[in-house]
Amino acid sequence: MPEAVVMTVPGYWAVLAAVLLGGLAVFAAALDAGLSDRAQGLGGGWGAPLAGTARLLRQRRRTTVAADAVLWRVGNAGMLMGALLMVAVVPLGWWALADLDVGVVWFNAVDVMVWALVWLAGWGANSTHSLVGGYRFLAHGLAYELPLMFALVAPAIAAGSLSVGDVVAAQEGLWFVVWMPVAFVVFLVGVTGFSVWGPSAPALGADIAGGVLSELSGVDRLVFLAGRYAFLAAGAAFSVPLFLGGGAGPVLPGWAWSLVKTAAVLGVLVWLRRKLPALRPDRFMEIGWVVMLPAALLQDLVVALIVVGKA
Amino acid sequence: MGLTDALARYALRATHVLVVEVPGEWRTRVGLEQQMLRRGWRPAWTPADADVLAVCGIPGPALAENVGQLWEQMPGPRVRADIGSLSHVSSALDDAATLLLDTPHHRADAQNRPERPQLPEPHGQSDDDGMDHGGHGHHGEHQSADHSDMGHGGHDGMDHGGHGGIDMAPEGIPLATGGQDRDGLEMDVLHLPWGPVLPFWPAGLVLRCALQGDVVVEAGASVIDDAHHHGPGEGHPAQAPWAAVRCDNAMALLALAGAEDVAVRARRARDALLDGNGDAARDAVTRLHRAVRRSRLLRWSLRGVLPLTASDLEDHGLPMSCLGDAHDRLVSLVERVRAQVHDRGPMNPSGTGAVVWDELPHLMTGLELATVRLAVASLDLDPLPGAREVARA
């Protein structure tokens, strides 16, 4: 059944999607805290994100002199909104909230929105480190965004469609990750990029005292951090229909496979954060455009040739 | 009421502490970090994120003023912990925990504070105000610095030598003044101070940078409350094992480079060296050495940061261990520590010369903002001596 693999569900299921996304974000935060404590030679730590949430709920909001409050808050809260918009086109097993004709482009549009959000969050505080962080993100964005776009092109060419459902259907028998590994890796780098995560997090770096985060406190900080984990989870979730065969798998139902695969990708991304140093924004461009961009283009070429050869 | 208390009690496990290290209190700060780790408390990088302001040692007048400003910037519930010496760390943190749970106290504290943040009073006797994390006093300068395309050039004719008129200072923030950049073009100048309170930074050091775009065009270094200081390296009593200080510095550099797991190894090596457990220390240092040598991405990210040739070293009076770029210096540092814990190195390597902080301005001028912190950390400065110790020496 190659047609209509993904079924659109009514809008109220968005609540479940939000809950699942929140659950994955908490999973990522708990895993990160647990790994962190293990590296320090301590036990436990898994509960730290929840205690941290309680702490930030108790903390007061603060503002700075001549802060651009509206844009600041838009940037902070927008991260969580963006992540929710992103999962709207991600199918859970065989169900999706929206199976747009241009689902892949939708994903891309939302991830480009992060450029504005992180920069606004950095701008609004009217503070040096915060603004430096915002611009660092733009420098990173310039380097990862084009390779990411071309990585998204590969599965779309293979499926001959920009609809996420069609991309899943086209992977029956062989997952795209097998014959487009380069696109998959570039895609994951892009995911860390728009979630400001791990090696792509100099915008929040220790050398600028937390950058975009440096002036955030209380619920503002909580919302920004939650949005960041949610984006990481949403990016990991989108890699499943795009490269990992969607809900396909033995024994378990489709939705379970989607979750298992998402959690696995998310786990790897969280684990990698501790292993890799930050990609310095002044030098990442070199990797982005000299290595990743040509690699993604070559991948697209190979995919296109295979598709033409088959037809 | 019950819920509020339960929330407070639960939140206590994740307390974030802004650590202020008075020069000369290196050991106290390290002791504090160890205690924090055991409680699950984590360092805050800025006052915005801090619940506890922990001051290690007794600050001098200028630092005390900075600490006051940091205190004002904390969101609350906020608690200040003054830690006079290493032996007081545990009790001070216990007290801080108790006070953090006192919700009525924090409610009263919140009501007695001004609604809006205020700029520190400008006054002349100390030029060290607002040097915390990009303190508020400098926002205006950067804001206009980043709007250099908005035509501040039009103000050239009425430049008041850096003193903008009242109408030129929205919310009390003076506008930036311009200067010629390295290509001879007019460009706004942002004055950005680093230190004396900054994560992974030599405590008490203040590095003021004048930035045009992201290039440091001018820099000046000083030490806070330095009335009695004659510069480090003049025989102040060794306050901590040499190797442990080196590991602490390596940790700072690695943390700034974002290499978290390797930084944790450096931290564990430092703590093992301080514990005096020879086998554990040797093991931890070996692991650190291996991790630093193996990471190719770390090499890539530290390559080319502040490269120094032999003649540069001579010009600036730097020790041979500073040769090369930041990665070379990191490897050399870890190798010297390894040699020492395996009893192959000199017994008192501190005599081989340390980097003098007053050379920093010359070294930092011309660097880009992204590398300044890495460059400073890679120089492996000795902790600055406290005023008391210098007076004694």
UniProtKB/TrEMBL annotation, chain A:
Compartments annotated for it: namely: Cell membrane; Membrane
According to its UniProt entry, one GO biological process term is: aerobic respiration
Query: Pfam families in the record, alphabetically?
Result: NADHdh
| Family of this protein | Belongs to the complex I subunit 1 family.
Q: Where are the transmembrane segments?
A: 12-31, 70-97, 103-125, 137-162, 174-197, 229-248, 254-272, 284-308
Q: Which PANTHER family has this protein been placed in?
A: NADH DEHYDROGENASE SUBUNIT 1, NADH-UBIQUINONE OXIDOREDUCTASE CHAIN 1
Q: Which GO terms describe its molecular function?
A: NADH dehydrogenase activity
Source organism: Kocuria soli
Entries under InterPro entries matching the protein = NADH_UbQ_OxRdtase_su1/FPO
Q: Which domain of life does the protein's organism represent? A: Bacteria
Task: Print the organism lineage.
Answer: Bacteria, Bacillati, Actinomycetota, Actinomycetes, Micrococcales
UniProt keyword terms in alphabetical order = Membrane, NAD, Transmembrane, Transmembrane helix
Q: According to its record, how does it sit in the membrane?
A: Multi-pass membrane protein
Instruction: Spell out the GO cellular component terms annotated for this protein, sorted alphabetically and separated by semicolons.
Output: plasma membrane
Name of protein: NADH-quinone oxidoreductase subunit H
